[in-house]
Design goal:
- The structure is a single chain.
- Strand 8 and strand 9 form a beta hairpin.
- 45% of the residues lie in helices and 14% in strands.
- The chain contains 31 helices and 22 strands.
- Among the domains are: 160 residues, Rossmann fold (3-Layer(aba) Sandwich), CATH 3.40.50; 312 residues, Rossmann fold (3-Layer(aba) Sandwich).
- It has a 6-stranded parallel sheet with strand order 19-18-17-20-21-22, with helices on both faces.
- It has 764 residues and is an alpha/beta fold.
Length: 764
């Protein structure tokens, strides 16, 4: 979620008033804003997407709730020590959180372990351990529409009789100390992005948020006028018409068997009725195609922790496979491929298959990704129910990612096309008619230059390096992962360095290369990549032959509040994942909206950005998905590229020989060995085209006017990538609700009788 103060002031239309008031108190608002901690309750794009969605849902007047866990410790703080990443706990609640309100009156029990008893009256889950879920509510204000929605985060609490009711009578002190075991559930965020770690505590977290949330939803449903009806049997018939639940990846997949358990075991609905309601309630968004990221929980673990849910999953699977077998008799391999249960050394539950079978809609997050989901990853399921699979291209909120972080540009745009674009970003196309307006071109360039100077001052303060603000700011910020290919950027840096040294007199377009992002603490290769970047920076930044032509900075502790500083100052945005691996990306959209040009592969939303702006207005390079597939068929041989490309050979040899690690020449052996022998993401295959494309970038940067015109064409084409558009599509195609851009009257104005009516005349 990042910080809340400035976002709240902007959405309430209070920023100028607050700035003035604080100034009159002799304080500086910006200084005040810097004191607030980021709420870092997610890992990367997926968590930030949810935050943008909350802003858009409130702005569109949707009655929507965001549910999650109130982690005591969020994503770790990253320190760089001697070039290595070191993790520190993110004690973000240390000074309290003024935006949250505990709601103990809505506390709910969540059950774990125990056993299942079957009788004539049905199944009973008994002898369980209980953990209480305490909700904390954070307001989510819409933009200037007097709407405030709620984000409800659950915190784990031990019941007061925890460990005191059973065999534990003797040791009261130990029993109270053991309360921590229950409360550990909401202690800390698992810091993996795009990687599955099958730990018991993580499964507990996933079920905890699901069980508390579903009870909350059902309590609200029963209390509403829609829930009350005479016949008990049909009490839940209207449930899918009143409730839509969107599963953000498979992490809340246990919601499907949990809702079935509530309907069948507690509310005593017949299975088929319960299953129909469940399917119509859930929809699933897939966020990655990397196999190591797909959740596959061991059956033994689920059986121990959630015995009844395992039985329900088996029953769902049995009925699912019976259906497949009836359509495809004797196709046992299809049954194996489509089963929710994977046989093998350890039996596992494929959570993505559970989500697909238990949902009425499945979507990817960019056109190319949704195609891959349909034709490759889940092709058997798409063949069965093609109408279930959709695309919903991701978006970003223009409130945080333009108004808040780049007020200079936002104001410049408003001067040209009015202020309405903030709620309807498609209006940015009106900027096309100013593409040849010399004054506008100069003003856009001036705003960018001011942002760069401001960020350069920040870098000098934090990193004690002198930055040339007229150099090209070449920025690569995102989680560190092999598929995102920070290594390819690193090889380009080394190549630029070698070119400067080979011919110091030759014209070189000065660059400040900024790389930032966190590596999962257990991801060895990602941590080596960080060390390598810092080792290269050490050499480059201290070589007198290079001077101010090339500087390399590793940005420590990349997070939302730092993104808000670096993105508006960026000239070149690096979006260089291997084609077919980045589901969408959203950083790419933030840079586009803030006047950076993109160098990127045809992957994720880059494809649609090129479609909107024209491919000639992005720097597109490298293999397409088809080329990657072709190369896989042929067999990728890294050695071939190394032998054929002298500049690549030289860069790799320098890493290998210890040129960047003279005290430990073998330091980067693992990295080099990976690049030659098991590089799934084919860095060498795209290196040549990447370097050539970077030369085109430098050429254009020399022509400041032509560069800025291309920037304007990009901003004018960024309208599609508002999360408002994304949410309207979810609302229309999946949730079947109508967004309203009606502004609710403020509480201090009496409501007009006419405004208080819905079209059919009943009270709103």
């Amino acid at each position: 979620m990042g910080r809340t103060l400035q976002n709240t002031m902007i959405n309430l239309g209070l920023q100028n008033a607050c700035d003035e008031a604080v100034y009159q108190l002799g304080l500086d608002m910006e200084e005040l804003e810097e004191i607030e901690e980021d709420a870092g309750l997610g890992n990367g794009g997926l968590g930030r997407l949810a935050a943008c969605f909350l802003d858009s849902m409130a702005t569109l007047g949707l009655a929507a709730y965001g549910y999650g866990i109130r982690y005591e410790y969020g994503i770790f703080n990253q320190k760089i020590r001697d070039g290595w990443q070191v993790e520190e706990a993110d004690d973000w609640l240390r000074h309290g959180n003024p935006w949250e309100k505990a709601r103990p009156e809505y506390m709910l029990p969540v059950h774990f372990y125990g056993r299942v008893e079957h009788s004539a009256s049905g199944a009973k889950w008994i002898d369980t351990q209980v953990v209480l879920a305490l909700p904390y509510d954070t307001p989510v204000p819409g933009y200037m529409n007097n709407t405030v929605n709620t984000m409800r985060l659950w915190s784990a609490r031990a019941p007061n009789d925890f460990n005191l009711r059973d065999f534990n009578v003797g040791d009261y002190i130990q029993a109270v100390l053991d309360r921590n075991l229950a409360e550990n559930i909401s202690r800390v965020l698992y810091p993996n992005d795009n990687f599955f770690e099958g730990k018991e505590l993580r499964l507990k977290q996933e079920y905890f948020v699901v069980a508390a949330t579903l009870q909350d939803i059902i309590r609200r449903f029963k209390a509403s006028k829609f829930g009350s009806t005479d016949s008990v049997r049909t009490v839940f018939d209207s449930f899918p018409d009143q409730v839509a639940i969107q599963l953000n990846d498979t992490h809340p997949a246990m919601a499907i068997p949990e809702l079935m358990r509530i309907f069948v075991d507690i509310e005593k609905l017949p299975w088929d009725k319960a299953w129909d309601i469940t399917k119509r309630t859930f929809a699933y968004t897939n966020h990655t195609v990397l196999p190591e990221a797909l959740e596959r929980w061991p059956v033994d673990l689920v059986e121990k922790l959630l015995p009844r849910h395992l039985q329900i999953i088996y029953e769902i699977n049995q009925r699912h496979l019976d259906h497949i077998a009836s359509l495809f008799p004797n196709d046992v391999d299809r049954l194996r491929r489509m089963s929710l249960i994977e046989e093998g050394n350890t039996k596992r539950i494929n959570m993505a298959h559970l989500c697909i079978v238990g949902s009425h809609a499945v979507n990817g997050v960019a056109k190319i990704h949704s195609e891959i989901v349909k034709t490759q990853v889940f092709e058997d399921f798409a063949e069965l129910e093609p109408e279930k699979f959709q695309n919903k291209t991701n978006g970003i909120t223009p409130r945080r990612w333009l108004l808040l972080c780049n007020p200079g540009l936002a104001e410049l745009i408003a001067e040209k096309i009015g202020e309405d674009y903030v709620r309807d970003l498609s209006q940015l196309t009106k900027l096309h008619k100013f593409v040849d307006d010399d004054l506008f071109i100069r003003e856009v360039a001036k705003v960018k230059q001011e942002n760069k100077v401001k960020f350069a001052l920040y870098l000098e303060k934090e990193y004690k390096v002198k930055i040339n603000p007229s150099s090209m700011f070449d920025v690569h910020v995102k989680r560190i992962h092999e598929y995102k290919r920070q290594l390819m950027n690193c090889l380009h840096i080394i190549t630029m360095y070698n070119r400067i040294r080979r011919d110091p007199a030759k014209l070189f377009v000065p660059r400040t290369v900024i790389i930032g992002g966190k590596a999962a603490p257990g991801y060895h290769m990602a941590k080596m990549i960080i060390k390598l970047i810092n080792a290269v920076a050490q050499v480059v930044n201290n070589d007198p032959m290079v001077g101010s032509k090339l500087k390399v900075i590793f940005l420590e502790n990349y997070r939302v509040s730092l993104a808000e500083k670096v993105i508006p100052a960026t000239d070149l945005s690096e979006q260089i994942s291997t084609a077919g691996t980045e589901a969408s990306g959203t950083g790419n959209m933030k840079f586009m909206l803030n006047g950076a040009l993109t160098i990127g592969t045809m992957d994720g939303a880059n494809v649609e950005m090129a479609e909107e702006a024209g491919e000639e207005n992005l720097f597109i390079f490298g293999m397409r998905v088809e080329d990657v597939t072709e190369l896989d068929k042929k067999g990728y041989n890294a050695q071939l590229y190394y032998d054929r490309l002298p500049e690549l050979k030289k860069a790799v040899d320098q890493i290998k020989s210890g040129f960047f690690s003279p005290k430990d020449p073998n330091l980067f052996n693992d990295v080099v060995n990976m690049l030659f022998h098991h590089d799934r993401f084919k860095v060498f295959a795209d290196y040549e085209d990447y370097v050539k494309c970077q030369e085109k970038v430098s050429q254009l940067y020399l022509d400041s006017k032509a560069w800025t015109k291309m920037v304007i064409r990009n901003i004018a084409a960024a309208g599609k990538f508002s999360s408002d558009r994304t949410i309207k599509e979810y609302a229309r195609d999946i949730w079947h609700v109508e967004p309203s851009d009606l502004k609710i009257p403020p509480p201090n104005e009496p409501r007009d009788a006419g405004q208080d009516k819905t079209p059919n005349g009943t009270a709103a």
